Amino acid sequence: MTTFEPLAASTDVFSPPVPVRLAPDHRSLIILDQTALPERVEERVLTTVEEIEEAIQSLRVRGAPLIGVAAALGVAALARRATSSGEPGHDPFRDRLVTWCRRLSKARPTGANLARAMERIERVAEAGRDESPTELARLVEVEALAIHLEDREMCGRIGAHALGLFSGSGPIEILTHCNAGALATGGIGTALAPVYLAHRAGRRVHVLADETRPLLQGSRLTAWELQEAGIDVTILTDGMAGARMASRPPDAVLVGADRIAANGDVANKVGTYGLAVLAAYHGVPFYVLAPTTTVDLDAARGDDIPIESRDPAEVRGGFGRTTAPDDAHVWSPAFDVTPAGLITAIVTEQGVHRLPYAEPLRRAVGASEAAR
After folding, report:
1. What residues contact 365, with CB distance under 8 A and at least 6 apart?
2. Active-site amino acid positions
């Protein structure tokens, strides 16, 4: 069993496992391999851009905010390794940094945070093009650590704003999809942040976690993470959510987001759209919790968001068991798009935003960029 470092004390909520971190010598990236959970708690040490890319694509490290953090820390580790080992390389060091960033930015296309983090590292590389490789590597690491810290702090603010949606001090029951907690971010999560804050405050919280087919991020990750934190959780298969809402609706549905269009349409793990329709029918508030780094103002609406397609083998035979004919046709988008009109509110670190979303989201992004 691996021993994990706790999050910084400033979160003051609980000490979950840290899903990504720099090695003590800052020359490699250490990740918690989320494909092994909950059966095994394993860490991997990544030392090449190919290994970091594979970890992102294979979902060893996952969650829109976290893959941005992981890629930034990964480039920082690659830079430290190259300069400390005296690797000569055939290109100027700044060009090598840019090559790493552009390769990793394409590892998964839907989440906005990954491309945005790589753009920030590229800007540092450009601004420091006249610096020595050692100094440029230091500047890249400073920026990567800032990206990690900002995400951690954003999680806390998102949680505080969202917790305000649940008045009083009574028990709370929420339904969530996929995993948008500490395993998906640099902090205590997005959709799960108010859960952790409520638990810390002594409120009774019960979470209904969708299993989340086909890779079971809800049952494998969310349920494991919440149990580790001592929070009551019940797993539902994806097809059970409607029956639960009909018989005993939760107080709200809380989900994260991989990309939010300028009009408030939200791309999130496939199955989110169906939950939003069910919530609307049953009168259950449906909240999207995500940092402003997930908002893409260049995407006017959901149709403009690129949707990743996954390997059909994940559906035909996940987790070592054949579950469909080998030659069966499979349609497997990783995400779906929930129209803005089905969303009760979008919660960012800048506050709670309601329809129409275009202007509130634009202001929130502007305020966050100005503060940075």
Report:
1. 292, 295, 297
2. 258
